[in-house]
Amino acid sequence: MTNGPNRIFDDFARLMTDAAGAAQGMKREAETIFQAQADRFLSSMDLVQREEFDAVKEMAVKARDVNDALEAKVADLEARLAKLESKK
């Protein structure tokens, strides 16, 4: 068994170790609570998920490509029709 100043230092070291462990536990608990609050806040904002956004973006790109192709086709058909009408 330790006596005198060594025992005091040992007890103090043990106390500081316990305090550090308690502080880490409180930090983890605070982070968990903050994360839960942030998740609750973001879900209440009705934000779109990234996967949904990417899917809609891809659909818009495809629709734009189809629209461009159809515009070119209509322009070609109008030019052919104008040629036929000018021959009359």
Can you describe what's shown?
Pfam families: BMFP. It comes from Ahrensia marina. This is Pyrroline-5-carboxylate reductase. Keywords: Coiled coil. It is rod-shaped and about 120 Å long. It has two domains: 46 residues; 41 residues. The protein is 90% helix and 0% strand. The model has no long low-confidence stretch (mean pLDDT 90). The chain is built from two helices and no strands. 0% of the residues are buried. It is an all-alpha fold.
Briefly characterize the structure.
With 88 residues, the chain is an all-alpha fold. The protein has two helices and no strands. InterPro entries: UbiK.
The rounded distance between the terminal residues' Cα atoms is 119 Å
The domain count comes to 2
Strand proportion, as a percent range, falls in under 5%
The oligomeric state is single chain
Anisotropy-based shape: rod-shaped
Helix-strand makeup class: mainly alpha
Name the poorly predicted regions. Answer: none
Using the CA coordinates, give the radius of gyration.
36 Å
Q: What's the count of strands?
A: 0
Mean pLDDT: 90
State the helicity in percent bands: over 70%
Q: List the secondary-structure elements in sequence, H or E.
A: HH
- Largest β sheet strand count, sense and barrel closure: none
Helix count? 2
Pfam family, one: BMFP
Keywords: Coiled coil
Coiled coil: 60-87
Protein name: Pyrroline-5-carboxylate reductase
